[in-house]
Structure formats: structure tokens, C-alpha cells
């Protein structure tokens, strides 16, 4: 049984930091591209970041580039999202997702439909 469990969410002031964790069981994350998505109230779930199965490649949505980093610890089967310089517009439920690692090409997409396993999400609120 595959389980992805997010943790680390909470409330923080603008400019603050949070680190989200995604503990995975039932699949080896080394064989998967691991992503983070978020969904704000009334909006579609959107891609935030992904780290490739090899760990060599990372991709981010433009709005978080330079502020967020994604990493993985295959020995703990856990993925992390470090979020710095948080803004009110980062407020959302953040979801961890897994996608079987495929060769990444110029036409590879990172939409929610591309990921097969999901966690339940963790709330992040950025407010003064």
C-alpha cells in the first residue's frame, strides 16, 4: 500500500520559512520523480516543484524559483520542500506526489495528471 504523508505546514509571517516533509512508504522514491503541488482556496491545484528520480534535476514554477528548494533523502524515503521568503500568495494546501521515473525530455510535463500517487496535504498559511 502506497502512502505519502506530508508534514511541516503551519502559519508563518511574510518573509518567514517552512520546511515541508513527505514521508513515503510502499514505493522506493529513488524510482520516482517526486513533486510538490499546492492548491489555494477556489483555485486549481498547481505544480510547484519536482525532483527527478536520480536527484540530478529539479524544476520549479516561476513564482517560487529562487525561494524554494526541493531535496530528497532516499535512505529515509522522504522528500523535502524548503520554503524561504514566504509570501501571502504562497498560502495553500501543499501536496506531495509521485510519478514513476521516466526519461525527462523537452516535452515532459509536470501536471497533476502526470502523477499517480498523492498525499493528503498540509496547510501553509502566510499572513501578518
Outline, from the CA principal axes?
A: globular
State the end-to-end distance.
40 Å
Structural class: mainly beta
Regions with little confidence, pLDDT below 50 for 5+ residues = none
Number of helices: 0
Tell me about the largest β-sheet: 7 strands, mixed
Helical percentage: under 10%
Radius of gyration: 14 Å
Question: What average pLDDT do the residues reach?
Answer: 96
Question: How many E-type strands?
Answer: 11
Explain what you see.
There is one protein chain. The strands form two sheets. Strands 2, 4, 5, 6, 9, 10 and 11 form a seven-stranded mixed β-sheet that branches. Strands 1-3-8-7 form a four-stranded antiparallel β-sheet, with no helix packed on it. The protein has strands at residues 3-7, 10-12, 18-25, 32-39, 46-51, 58-60, 68-73, 78-83, 92-100, 117-118, 122-126. With 128 residues, it is mostly beta strands. The N and C termini lie far apart (40 Å). It has no helices and eleven strands. The mean pLDDT is 96. The chain is globular.
Give a nutshell description of this structure.
This protein is mainly β. It has strands spanning 3-7, 10-12, 18-25, 32-39, 46-51, 58-60, 68-73, 78-83, 92-100, 117-118, 122-126. The protein is built from no helices and eleven strands.
Amino acid at each position: 500500500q502506497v502512502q505519502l504523508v506530508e508534514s511541516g505546514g503551519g502559519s508563518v509571517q511574510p518573509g518567514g520559512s517552512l520546511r515541508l516533509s513527505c514521508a513515503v512508504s510502499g514505493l522506493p522514491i529513488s524510482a520516482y520523480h517526486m513533486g510538490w503541488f499546492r492548491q489555494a482556496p477556489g483555485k486549481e491545484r498547481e505544480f510547484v516543484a519536482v525532483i527527478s528520480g536520480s536527484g540530478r534535476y529539479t524544476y520549479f514554477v516561476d513564482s517560487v524559483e529562487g525561494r524554494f528548494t526541493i531535496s530528497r533523502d532516499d535512505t529515509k524515503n522522504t522528500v523535502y520542500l524548503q520554503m524561504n521568503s514566504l509570501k501571502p500568495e504562497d498560502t495553500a494546501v501543499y501536496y506531495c506526489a509521485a510519478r514513476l521515473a521516466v526519461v525527462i525530455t523537452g516535452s515532459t510535463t509536470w501536471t497533476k495528471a502526470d502523477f499517480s500517487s498523492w498525499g493528503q496535504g498540509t496547510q501553509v498559511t502566510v499572513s501578518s
